[in-house]
Amino acid sequence: MAVRAPVSASGRLLEGFRKWYYNAAGFNKLGLMRDDTLYENDDVKAALKRLPENAYNERLFRIKRALDLSMKQQILPEEQWVKYEEDKKYLEPYLKEVIRERLEREEWDKK
């Protein structure tokens, strides 16, 4: 029992740090989600093509709104900020699949 207490305390500390860092990064104040800020390399571009149309359109809307706010040097009202708990990694399943396929293809090409 005594061993578990420090683990859960460190877990809570780590979770608190994640929330702090998420808010400190500032992209949520522009209405962006974490996956909206990924660098678009070949894998990310392929994953974006696999997104459902409505998810892709929502992503474009968030990015355009963020660009507009950035140009005006404004941020969204606090009630419209994306919260840490609400941020879902919508692109991650598609990205993992693309990377898995690329690695499989590279392994196949080696043979």
Automatic annotation (TrEMBL):
Transmembrane segments: none annotated. Signal peptide: none annotated. InterPro entries: QCR7 (IPR003197), QCR7_sf (IPR036544). It is found in: Mitochondrion inner membrane. GO terms for biological process: mitochondrial electron transport, ubiquinol to cytochrome c. Component of the ubiquinol-cytochrome c oxidoreductase (cytochrome b-c1 complex, complex III, CIII), a multisubunit enzyme composed of 3 respiratory subunits cytochrome b, cytochrome c1 and Rieske protein, 2 core protein subunits, and additional low-molecular weight protein subunits. The complex exists as an obligatory dimer and forms supercomplexes (SCs) in the inner mitochondrial membrane with cytochrome c oxidase (complex IV, CIV). Component of the ubiquinol-cytochrome c oxidoreductase, a multisubunit transmembrane complex that is part of the mitochondrial electron transport chain which drives oxidative phosphorylation. GO terms for cellular component: mitochondrial inner membrane; respiratory chain complex III. This is Cytochrome b-c1 complex subunit 7. Its main location: mitochondrion. It comes from the Eukaryota. SUPFAM superfamilies: 14 kDa protein of cytochrome bc1 complex (Ubiquinol-cytochrome c reductase). It comes from Terrapene triunguis. The lineage of its organism: Eukaryota, Metazoa, Chordata, Craniata, Vertebrata. Belongs to the UQCRB/QCR7 family. Keywords: Electron transport, Membrane, Mitochondrion, Mitochondrion inner membrane, Respiratory chain, Transport.
